[in-house]
Request: fold
Amino acid sequence: MDVISYKPLWLSLCVALAGCQSGTAQPPAEQTAATLIMTSAAPLEAESAQLIGNDGFWPGASQLLVRPDSRGLQMLDAKGAVLSSFQGRFDGLDHRASEQGLLIATLDRKRQQAVLLGLDRQQRWSQPLYVPKTNFAIEGLCLYRDAARNGYVFLVGAQGIGEQWLVAAGQKLLAAPQRVRGLSLPPESSYCQVDDQSGELVVNEENVGLWRYPADAEAPLLRHPVDIVQPFGGIAEAAAGMALVPGGLLALDPKAGALHLYQRDGDDWRSHQVIALDGFDEPEQVSARATPAGLDLLLTDERGVHGAQLDWQPQAPAATPVIPMLPAMVQTDPVPHLGDAADDPAIWVNPTDPARSRVLGTDKKGGLAVYDLTGKQLQYLPVGRLNNVDVRSGFALGGKRVDLAVASNRDHNSLHLFAIDPRSGQVSGIGEVATPFNEIYGLCLFKDRQGAIHAIANDKDGTFQQYRLDGTSGSPRGEQVREFKLSSQPEGCVADDRNQRLFVGEEDAAVWTLDLRSDAATTLEKVIGVGGPLHDDIEGLALYQGKNADYLVISSQGNDSYLVLDAQAPYAVRGAFRVGLNAERGIDGASETDGLEVTSANLGGLWNRGMLVVQDGRKRMPEGAQNYKYVPWAAVAEALGLD
Reply:
């Protein structure tokens, strides 16, 4: 047993690796050194092994093994007796346990495919579920179960290639795996593990160190170092297999014959101890299970699997509040352009047949898309780079009445107007209104008590201008009626026609409200500031106006959530939620949302209490052009206990 202290990772490599805050600092004095005690007289013949988690799966079950011969996959009790087996030639192993059974991931050697197996409490194995063949050699795999109990497998490939696949909903395997996303991983990686509680994927890079990534399907692909090889970190020579326990990480350096222990420290890891594994022959894999006395271990080297105990109990992090995850029920066809293209939706309610209502979505690289309630694109108007869009009914255009959509056109710094046929929902361009803006950005509409429709648009410099729109001549015109300014960049806004008020978002600061009457003072009142439940950027704003209460919905882009507030002072926060993956429908969740819209209108079916539409900034499953996701308001109301 060795206790080793290291220099902090504040050398030049950490700067180059962007934000290295990993923990190789000296362990605090109050922490006692852990002792490793071997519990098996001789190694057990196996190539991979894991201790079964303490999740109430199967009394007496102790460990899973992958045998190097035709005995295949076996589950053993504490005395080594075989309780159940599945024949085949496999390589690598990971599992998740629950009261219903085990979900197991391994690699079929013969087929060179990842395979998922279920094992229930009656010792019945499911039919194998094979992940489609990859175009890279799979070096390692690991499982992840998210907050919504969806099951995923990560595949680690040669030359830095990786993939994430959805394989289960709850404990039930899907009929067919769904590819979630491709991953860019280190080029010398063979091992991975995921901490389900923190949603963190840890991957080795053999001659460099250990890296952590966010594991959630909607998370960005960002990496941070856990520890680096000397002289920049505390690893002597190499990084191989690892195991995660609450508050702790164990990782092997096979070349140095050492086991590294790390303690969770906020979002980072701090080195606790390094234990010399004398007598081991290049240990590559470790499995750990928490017990009242410390940790039970399985250590796998060239000779087989060794049992051990470690009198170390890392401090588990405090549980963090769970934000409800609501599955997307519908997704639209993608916008035509790749990259950051989709931005802001609006909902047009068909006054005679609500089931034939439309969702309008901007494509800020080319135009306006029109979708039905199933998400099918019905129209695409390639009129330019449109950013935000809003709709109001009853606009006088020449001698007829149409419903009106207005979008901010970034090509022309103009208000781009569209007529919506009240019967068919057909959308057509009717002209533009010039503005003096240099960089027009956000926009929303307002209908005053006299029935006039106003457009409120903003510039990236914080300037807002309000225009009274008129189409009685047959061509649209706009009269500026007032102007005000925020201190920094705004975008989203929404008007409360009932109460003649405007809500505006200042991206890095706050949501504000002011009187919308054109002759009123432009005095800003703070609704909510950044901090606490609201994470910048503040993006889309929408207003749900129900029979009993009105709610303001905000895109809290910084933590991929949506915040709901009372729309009347004192603007009490009613809660937050996220839009997550729908495994049954094969729809990914939503993240990095720019614009959103909501209606309280009864659109029938799922939408009988209204509908929320959000822009999805990271399209997954499959990866591709951005789109919009639909969520029943009834699900939001139930999750947050709203009227």
